[in-house]
Amino acid sequence: MDTKTRHTVEGAAKNEISEYFIYRAIASRTKNEHNRKVLEEIAEQEKGHYEQWTKILGKEIAPSRIKIWFYTTLSSLLGLSFSLKLMEKGEGLSQQLYQELSGEYPEALDIFKDEQRHEKELLNMIDEHLLQYMSSFVLGLNDALVELTGALAGLTLALNDTRLIAIVGLITGIAASFSMAASEYLSTEEEGGNAIQASIITGIAYILTVFILVTPFLIVGNVYKALACTLVLAILIIFIFTFYTSVAKGIAFKRRFFKMATISLGVAALSFGVSIVVKKIFGVE
Predict the structure, then answer these.
(1) 40-49, 161-170, 228-237: range with lowest mean pLDDT
(2) What is the rounded distance in angstroms from the CA atom of residue 234 to the CA atom of residue 272?
(3) pLDDT at residue 277, as a whole number
(4) Cβ contacts of residue 77 below 8 Å, gap of 6+?
(5) Which residue range forms the structural domain that includes residue 104?
(6) Same structural domain for residues 225 and 162?
(7) How many Cα neighbours within 13 Å face the side chain of 240?
(8) DSSP 126
(9) Between the CA of residue 209 and those of 99, 137, 139, 145, 155, what are the distances in Å?
C-alpha cells in the first residue's frame, strides 16, 4: 500500500470509529424507541467498517474526539435530524474514496453500500418533535422577513428618523405577530393539529425576527445605513434558516435561498418605491 492510499484508509477508519461513538452517544439519550434502535444498529455497522479498515492497515486508529464532541453537542442544540444529516452529507467525500479504493480492496464497495443505506434509514427513522412544527416556524419567519423588510424600507424614506422608524416598526411587527399567531391557530385547529403550540411557535418566530430587523435602527444613527444593516441581517437570517431546513428536510438549498432572498429584497425595494410616490403625491418632506 502506497503512502497516499494508507493515509486515505487511515482517514476512513478514523471517520468510521468516530461516527460509531457519535451514534452510540446520541442513541443513549434518545427517548424514541425506534430511533434509538436504528441508531444503535448503524453504530454497530460503523464499528464493523472500522474493523475492516484496521485489518487492512494492521493497526488501530484513534477516533476524533473533536468530531464526537461537535456532533453530539450539535444534536442537543439543533436536533437529531439536522445533526446526523449534516454528518452524513459530510460523508459524501468518504463514499467517493471508497469507490476509488474498491478496485484494490473489494470490501470498500460493501462499506460504500452500507453508507448509502445509512442515509435511507436516517431519512426514514426521523420522528422528531422539532420538525413537526417546522412549518409553523417557517411561516412566522418568512412573513416577518417579507412584511417587515418592506415596512422598514418604506418607513425609512417616509419618516427619516431612526428612533421613530424603530418604534413604528416594533408596533407594526408585534401587532402583525399576534395576527399571524391567531391565523395559524385557526388553520392548525382545522387540520386537527396542536393549534396552541403551532400558534405560539409562529408568533415567537415572527417577534424574534422583528426585534432582529429593527435593532439597527436603535443603534445606527443614519437611516439609510440602518436600512442597509437590516437588509444584511435579513439575508443572514434567510441563509442560516434555509441551510438548516435544507439539511434537516433534504430540500435544495440554493433555489430556496435565492427565492426567499429575492422575495424579501423585492418587497423592500417595492415598498421603498411606494413611499417615494406617496411622499410626492401628498407633498410630504
Answers:
(1) 40-49
(2) 16
(3) 84
(4) none
(5) 3-127
(6) yes
(7) 9
(8) -
(9) 45, 11, 12, 7, 17
Which of 242, 244, 279, 245 shows the shortest CA–CA distance to 261?
A: 242
pLDDT single digits (tens) 1-36: 677 778 878 888 898 899 999 999 999 998 888 888
Q: Rounded to whole angstroms, how far apart are CA atoms 141 and 244?
A: 13
Question: Residue-wise over 217-253: b if at least 16 C-beta within 10 A, else e?
Answer: beebeebeebbebbbebbbebbeebbebbbbbeeeee
Return the C-alpha cell found at 223. 437611516
pLDDT tens-digit readout, 34-76: 888 888 888 888 898 898 888 888 899 999 999 999 999 998 8
Residues 109, 213 within the same domain: no
Whether residue 195 is predicted with pLDDT greater than 80 in this model: the reply is: yes
Residue 105 is classified by DSSP as -
Do 194 and 103 belong to one domain? Answer: no
Q: Which amino acid is at 273?
A: G
